[in-house]
Specification:
This protein has about 130 residues and is mainly alpha-helical. It contains six helices and three strands.
């Protein structure tokens, strides 16, 4: 059944099984990884992603991220999230070199994340600032 007129104009195709797409975006850190990689032309190190995410999570500039903050995010990325995203096909992750790169699915998933975030309303005070591991 067709949606509203013009709804297909901005439709993005994500080359993943729907369950895998939902798994990819079901975690805050995985969403941030996908958004970070969306416009990347080359692989990004897990360490650089950890600094970027730690800065966002702690509300500081990347240069102000402590080693403890970086480590906490880095361990979660390398032991859980990057492997999950790689197995699904949302990113390419080389566990030896710790390099992460986008796939054909990355941009579509990032678009879904942005659209969902802009369509939802959740005041910061109600979220409590917690991040899922």
């Amino acid at each position: 059944m067709p949606g509203p007129k013009g709804a297909r104009e901005n439709y993005c195709v994500i080359p993943l099984d729907p369950d895998d797409a939902f798994e990819a975006i079901s975690n805050c850190r995985r969403r941030r990884v996908l958004l970070s990689l969306e416009h990347s032309d080359s692989p990004i190190s897990a360490g650089d992603l950890a600094v970027e995410l730690a800065a966002i999570e702690n509300g500081v500039e990347p240069s102000a991220v402590t080693s403890k903050q970086r480590s906490r995010v880095y361990i979660a990325l390398t032991q859980v999230h990057l492997d999950t995203l790689h197995e699904i096909g949302a990113v390419k992750y080389d566990s030896r070199s710790k390099q992460v790169a986008p796939t054909d699915a990355t941009a579509g998933l990032a678009e879904v994340i942005r659209r969902t975030e802009s369509s939802c309303y959740s005041p910061e005070s109600e979220r409590g600032g917690e991040v899922d591991a």
